[in-house]
Design a protein that fits this description.
The protein is mainly α and about 210 residues long. The protein is about 75% helix and about 0% strand. It is elongated and about 55 Å long. It starts with a helix and ends with a helix.
Length: about 210
């Protein structure tokens, strides 16, 4: 592992909340981790909503900009709800901006509060859309698992992660994995069991970090 990766992993172990860390704009490592974790999630929702690539990229960048400007307010508001709900509403509103589908009077009322950063709780009062919320939750869980797997892959031997990926993620039969990677079935079972426990630990850490 390179020194820069070691420093990032060490930082993630010793400072539990990524949301707290990104309040400091100068913390480049935390912002890079935050961007890596959330970009795919935000961009994916924008694309599934019907936006083209360029507009979805704009939405993604706009959401990151608003998070940078208002995360300190979110963290200090006891009525904020979950971060993932707040992030979904930010994303949903930016998508609506792109489509121009929001009523004009609502748009100006929202922008008045949203642009100042003084009333981020307003965002949380957007009416729920059950189907969209359910899809977002499913995507969030997939996103969380993918992020945990990425972290796991950086911490274990490449060959061990390959065993884990083929056996448990891609659901290859144990004998096929053993034959393909020239190892014993017993090793496949042991590696799979050990890395599954580590993956669960990574998911638990991420849930705490990501709100």
């Amino acid at each position: 592992m390179s020194p820069s990766k070691e420093a990032t992993v060490s930082s993630l172990r010793t400072r539990p909340s990524l949301l707290l860390r990104v309040r400091t704009w100068e913390d480049a490592a935390s912002w890079a981790e935050f961007h890596r974790l959330y970009r795919k999630l935000i961009y994916g929702l924008a694309r599934r909503s019907g936006l083209q690539h360029a507009d979805a990229e704009d939405v993604t960048q706009d959401v990151f900009k608003r998070v940078a400007e208002t995360i300190h307010v979110f963290e200090s508001d006891p009525n904020r709800g979950t971060f993932r709900g707040w992030l979904m509403n930010l994303t949903r509103w930016r998508i609506a901006d792109k489509f121009g589908s929001r009523p004009k009077d609502e748009y100006h009322s929202v922008r008045k509060h949203d642009d100042t950063g003084a009333r981020t709780s307003t965002i949380e009062r957007v009416p729920d859309r059950p189907e969209e919320d359910s899809e977002w939750d499913k995507e969030w869980q997939r996103h969380l698992l993918d992020a945990a797997c990425e972290r796991l892959a950086r911490k274990v031997k490449a060959r061990h992660y390959q065993v884990f990926d083929l056996y448990l993620r891609q659901q290859w039969p144990v004998l096929k994995v053993a034959r393909e990677l020239r190892t014993s079935p017993a090793s496949v079972y042991l590696i799979g069991h050990r890395l599954t426990k580590q993956l669960k630990a990574e998911v638990k850490i991420l849930k705490k970090q990501l709100g």
